[in-house]
Write a structure and sequence with these properties.
Elements lengths: L1 H27 L13 H23 L5 H14 L3 H27 L1 H11 L8 H23 L2 H20 L2 E2 L5 E2 L6
Antiparallel strand pairs: 1-2
Helix pairs in contact: 1-4, 2-6, 2-7, 3-7, 4-5, 4-7, 5-6, 6-7
């Protein structure tokens, strides 16, 4: 299961930017390097991404620990724990998702359809907007706002800000979910000294 996740991470890191390049080539007639242009330095983009992504990740963690959304935390905790991913694996998968997905969505798709539509599509593809499950949809609405924020970060600072922020959102959530203690009666707790 862990090998499969690592394989998907590599596909995301390498394949998604390729899809983004093809979209730019066929629909915008612009070079791939246009994605990377910014008036902000890369170190500044990374620092802003680290801070904003950590804050958004902590906000998402806070949301799924609310009593009315505890089943969402349990559901995703079980999924993540089934992978048996290590701390190094969390960082690797988060890096691949952050950079691969952002190069595609923020770098290539967002210029075509806009910040808000891209955010909605991104969150819907991830399964967080489910009309059959209003609790997951509440989380999805939050994530749509968070992902739109990444779109604005891309516009104002550059793609590396969004990629780093996305990575940190995933790191915070994966770290929390891998340490989630799921009780048989669906009550969960996390040792506070671990997080």
């Amino acid at each position: 299961m862990k090998r499969r996740l690592i394989g998907l991470a590599w596909v995301t890191l390498l394949g998604f930017p390729l899809i983004g390049w093809l979209l730019l080539y066929f629909f915008r007639d612009e070079p791939l390097q246009l994605i990377f242009r910014s008036s902000s330095s890369i170190p500044l983009q990374v620092v802003i991404g680290l801070i904003s992504g950590t804050l958004l990740g902590l906000a998402a963690k806070w949301l799924i620990t609310r009593p009315f959304l505890n089943q969402v935390g349990i559901k995703y905790g079980r999924i993540i724990q089934n992978f048996g991913i290590s701390t190094a694996g969390i960082w690797f998968v988060s890096f691949c998702a952050g950079f691969g997905e952002e190069l595609l969505f923020r770098g290539a798709i967002q210029p075509l359809i806009g910040i808000w539509v891209t955010a909605f599509v991104f969150v819907a593809i991830h399964g967080y907007l489910d009309p059959r499950d209003w609790k997951i949809s509440v989380y999805g609405i939050f994530m749509t706002l968070a992902i739109a924020a990444l779109g604005y970060l891309t516009e104002y600072f550059g793609i590396w800000t969004a990629a780093t922020a996305h990575m940190m959102i995933d790191v915070v959530l994966f770290y929390y979910l891998t340490r989630l203690k799921i009780q048989p009666e669906n009550i969960y707790q996390v040792d506070s000294h671990e997080f």
